[in-house]
Amino acid sequence: MRASAAFIGLLVVALAPWPAWADDPNAAKCAAPAELIQDDPRLPAVARELKQHWPLVIVVIGGASTAGTAPDNAYPYFLEAALRQRHPNQPITVINRGVAGNTSAEMADRFAEDVYSYRPSLVIWETGTVDAVRGEDVDSVAATLTDGLAAIKSHGAEAMLVDMQYNPNSVSVIDFEPYLDALHQAAQLQDVYMFKRFDLMKYWSEAGDFDFTNAPREKRASLAREVYECLGARLADAIDYAAH
Asked: Kind of pairing, strands 158-162 and 122-126?
């Protein structure tokens, strides 16, 4: 339970070089190698809607790090703001369906109500952390991911996966690797864009740009908001890249 609670406060940021990002005021402090954010699968349907200025609906389903500390202090909120700023003539709605403590299977069980009912063009599925913390059967997790991504496609939406968070203290007691492999293999099998949050957060930690373990209590709220905002902007970068 201690490990699970520790993850609630962990956040992540990312950036890859892309010409449209030049005016982003957070670009310097959110920088990261391009290979950590750019992925091969593209988002042709999202690209078409952006080009035609059709309404774009994105549902983000995930756990505590998706829910954030408040509706206006979560990365889906900042993702919507970033996309609207970059596409001012585009009707864009980002719906946050994060629920703390959900496994991948529990999230998949919510798809009918929390995803399909909104008829999204894009579904961003953030998962893996609770599965690893609880030690869920890896093969079952892999099957849930593969089936879930296929179901999203069958409902006419494109998908992105976001893997779990990284924390130097947690990786010493929790074996994330099998679950990371399951996420990345599912993305590859279903030809889905993989947003590598774990590797990005590890990059930030090792570079010393964000201290996720020793931040003073009085600075944690401001740090959380800063990192959520960076994550939202970097996800917007990934979407723009995939839809370019």
From this structure: parallel
Exposure string of 142-157, with b = 16+ CB inside 10 Å and e = fewer, is bebbbebbebbeeeeb
Domains of the chain with bracketed CATH: 2-242 (3.40.50.1110)
pLDDT, mean of residues 203-232: 83
Which of helix, strand or coil describes residue 225? helix
What is this structure's pTM? 0.88
* pLDDT digits 0-9 by tens, 97-156: 999 999 999 999 999 999 999 999 999 999 999 999 999 999 999 999 999 999 999 999
The CA distance from 18 to 34, in Å, is 9
What is the H or E stretch that residue 223 is in?
Answer: helix 220-242
Query: What is the distance, to the nearest Å, from the Cα of residue 216 to the centroid of all Cα atoms in its chain?
Result: 26
What is the Cα–Cα distance from 120 to 130, expressed in whole angstroms? 25
> What is the C-alpha to C-alpha distance for residues 195 and 36, in angstroms, rounded to an integer?
8
Residue 6: pLDDT band (50, 70, 90) is very low
Alpha-carbon gap, residue 91 to 93, rounded angstroms: 7
Q: Which of 179, 237, 170 is nearest to 205 (CA)?
A: 170
Strand order in the sheet with 158-162: 92-98, 56-62, 122-126, 158-162, 193-195
Q: What does the block give as tokens for 73?
A: 């202090």
Q: What is the pLDDT of residues 145-174, one digit of tens each?
A: 999 999 999 999 999 999 988 888 888 889
